[in-house]
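Appendix C. Worked example: Cytosolic endo-beta-N-acetylglucosaminidase TIM barrel domain-containing protein
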Amino acid sequence: MQEFDSSDICLPITDVNLVLSWKCDGKCWIHKHDVVPIKHRSTYKNVGSVLEIRSKNDVYSEYKVCSDLLPKTVFCHDFKGGYLEDRFCNGSPNIDTYRFFNWAAIDLFIYFSHKLVTIPPQGWLNAGHTHGVPVLGTLITEWHEGEAIWRGILTDIEKTNLFSQKLAEICAHYKFDGYLLNVENVIPKDFVPRLVQFVGLLKAHLDLYCARRTWLIWYDSVTTDGTLDWQNKLCPLNKPFFDACDGIFLNYVWKPADLQESLREAGARVHDVFVGVDVWGRNCYQDGGFNVDKALAVLRTLNMSVAIFAPGWTFETLPADEDFLTRETSFWRRLSSYHYVHGPAQLPFHSDFCQEDNRPAAV
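Step 2, the predicted output written as structure tokens:
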């Protein structure tokens, strides 16, 4: 069995005490494998797919719209628990795995796992940053263990501050761009105000320690009364968390009527509401899979942002007689009418057409 140097492997942090005591040392992978700075993207997006634009025989520039005026697309990576072949900084001999190459169509990338602090692996960081896409990690707590973690953190204001500070230091050290904050456990009601305070504190610490644009997105889970009750919409039970950070990732069991309430609650921040769509289709509108475009059609009609969860479904459900690239391309092509595609920030630009599997492309 091949052995790997621990400084060549990207791993999460699984224990809250390791977070509270975290400090930079010379043994982690980032001292050997750098992360490229995030590149600038164009300040506009092209409405619709390039194929549609060409077919209309109109002036290309007529389809350019300022990015700030358009809804966003979040890609939430959830592939078999994470940290598989992608955890190796020097690459893996197994190139037959999930890969993503439609970077121009997304605005944020979230690396997700069910570990306490998910630090995005170097490969995903470099791929996203090369295309101008911020790459976020995840802070997740779940069930009884999660409740115990937050009891320990929120009962002591100094520990609350330290936990926030250490999370920001970790983000700055590994050069990722923020967190998805997912509290999937009950919180004693008396502690909820301090949890809301923690969200704002973490956002402030991220901006301070990273000294660049960062993102903190709240997942629609625990509510302001401390219960674990997914709302599937922005409403008074989760809006204080939304107000304290950069956006909310709504749970994916929404109905069209829920979207109207989200619009009313969001006001001018409508594009900061990321409506969840589960590609696996678990109780999801239109059942996910190759019907994700139907959910996206509803959202774009309302000028709303989307968070596409677990698009690695295209690989995990790949039939034995089907090619992954064909299936992946088919999935994203169905969404192309609802994409707002980033163009290059400057010309000329270059590409080797590699789709992140290190195999040469025939051009």
